[in-house]
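Lab meeting, item 3. Inverse folding demo.
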């Protein structure tokens, strides 16, 4: 075993701690840019003349002035696969809605409204609460499942440690991913929506799968190791036995995700990018964070 995962682990732990700390700060300042899924607002799907582009629509929106001299700020526009335009904005009154369609028809030509949906702030708050519950319940369920699955681990190592450390690494993956997208939400059109929460839950499943494979190898090696063999040696051997499988799984997954990112629909591009970033961070945490934390915890006990 030429390369050691355990010896340089303190540097990876320091790096992870710093990234998690920065991500937590970013959650409060500047904070995530939330979509109308969470804040409430209006979603409009339009079919504009084929000669008009997304930029033409954006320019037309910016030139719209209502009777009370107000304008529409922070309008998110995205093209769909069916060659329509999706616009997300603040809540519109009936008068503003009619004025908007009339203005676009005058500016761009014949504009057909395909969909008009309003999400109230109460619904948005409920979705936000349910999203946190979904992430919380998934984490607790993972701890319970891993503790049950590793119940036959030798008595010198509690099965609860495997579950707790798995969830710690999952929180690490989720927080860093969220921190990255908080930055992206400030410099691009990205907004936190329910699809992003779905991506986070997918990352939880992917990351814990990789971690459990390594933990399972540690458990098997503990059952067959020589009496008196140091735990960190068993952990190191288990990582070396699992690293090829983990990297091969990650690379094959990333190839598919990059293909989707490049060739897929615009509507799922942010979703796919979230999975790409989560898969990379999840592979890193499974190899360089989860097992070293287990070793350090065992050493302290």
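The presenter then showed the designed sequence:
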């Amino acid at each position: 075993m030429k390369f050691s995962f355990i010896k340089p682990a303190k540097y990876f732990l320091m790096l992870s701690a710093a990234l998690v700390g920065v991500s937590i700060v970013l959650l409060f300042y500047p904070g995530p840019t939330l979509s109308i899924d969470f804040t409430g607002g209006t979603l409009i799907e339009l079919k504009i003349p084929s000669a008009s582009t997304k930029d033409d629509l954006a320019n037309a929106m910016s030139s719209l002035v209502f009777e009370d001299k107000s304008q529409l700020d922070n309008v998110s526009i995205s093209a769909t696969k069916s060659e329509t335009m999706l616009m997300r904005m603040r809540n519109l009154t009936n008068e503003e809605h009619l004025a908007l369609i009339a203005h676009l028809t005058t500016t761009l030509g014949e504009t057909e409204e395909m969909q008009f949906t309003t999400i109230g702030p109460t619904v948005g708050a409920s979705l936000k609460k349910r999203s946190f519950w979904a992430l919380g319940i998934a984490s607790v369920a993972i701890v319970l499942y891993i503790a049950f699955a590793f119940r036959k681990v030798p008595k010198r190592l509690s099965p609860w440690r495997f579950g707790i450390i798995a969830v710690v690494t999952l929180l690490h993956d989720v927080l860093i991913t969220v921190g990255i997208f908080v930055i992206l939400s400030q410099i691009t059109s990205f907004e936190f929506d329910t699809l992003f929460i779905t991506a986070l839950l997918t990352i939880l499943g992917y990351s814990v799968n990789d971690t459990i494979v390594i933990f399972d190898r540690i458990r098997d090696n503990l059952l067959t190791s020589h009496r008196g063999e140091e735990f960190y040696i068993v952990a190191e051997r288990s990582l070396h036995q699992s690293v090829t499988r983990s990297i091969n799984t990650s690379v094959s997954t990333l190839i598919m995700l990059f293909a989707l990112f490049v060739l897929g629909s615009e509507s799922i591009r942010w979703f796919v990018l979230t999975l790409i970033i989560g898969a990379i961070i999840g592979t890193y945490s499974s190899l360089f964070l989860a097992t070293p934390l287990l070793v350090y915890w065992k050493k302290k006990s």
